Amino acid sequence: MPMTREEIVSVLGPTDETLVAHILSTGASFKELREAGAWLNEDEALMGEGRPLPDTRVAALIDLLDADEDD
Which of 35, 37, 41, 57 has its CA 20 to 30 Å from the CA of residue 48? Predict the structure, then answer.
């Protein structure tokens, strides 16, 4: 099930509407957004746990979130 704007804001806090639109366009779920946030913030810890690398949608979310942090 695709996520809502409110779910995105609950993870990211107040954010640019363009980023929200890009995230929604991925078709990712709320769970995938939370996973992307975890990978972005703690990727070494997740790899240490033996977790598999993120799937395509999670990777797309990581790219979007990482690009936003660079701005």
Answer: 57
Tens digit of each residue's pLDDT (9 = 90 or more) over 4-35 = 999 999 999 999 999 999 999 999 999 999 98
Cα-Cα-Cα-Cα dihedral sign, residues 18, 23, 26, 27: negative
Q: CB 3: neighbour CB atoms within 10 A?
A: 21
Judge whether 38 and 65 are in contact, CB under 8 Å: no
CA atoms within 13 A on the CB side of 20: 15
Distances from the Cα of 66 to the Cαs of 31, 39, 58, in angstroms?
18, 11, 12
